[in-house]
Amino acid sequence: QVQLVESGGGLVQAGGSLRLSCAASGSIYAINRMGWYSQAPGKQRELVASITSGGTTTYADSVKDRFTISRDNAKNTMYLQMSSLAPEDTAVYYCNAELIPSYGGSKYRSYWGQGTQVTVSS
Fold first, then answer.
1. Residue 24: φ, ψ to 5°
2. Chain mean position to CA 121
3. If 56 and its partner were Cys, which of 2, 17, 25, 52 is the partner (CB 3.0–4.6 Å)?
4. Residue 65: Cβ-neighbour burial (10 angstroms; 0-12, 13-18, 19+)
5. pLDDT at position 43, please?
6. pLDDT in the model for residue 90
7. 91 vs 56: CA distance, rounded Å
8. What is the reported pLDDT for 103?
């Protein structure tokens, strides 16, 4: 079974920083794209940033120049360095991975973590 576990969320003041981590574990054959999604109260979950296995990154316009996504393929771990945080960044941040389970198949499947809360105070 595959599991994604986020960590690093918390309460910070505006202008502060956090580093989120997402560790993928279990029966994983290969991970292609990984990404961070945010969901604020009453809003739809949306992409924050993503990164391919080759290191190609994508950012939402709202976080570009403030957040940096990275991954350690050897550890199956993804990170989101969040700087210059603002109250608008307050949300639950979810880890997503497109991967091939080791139990078979050749198609990538999408998996989600449980989310980690990020709260930015004014």
1. -95, 135
2. 21
3. 52
4. exposed
5. 96
6. 98
7. 25
8. 83
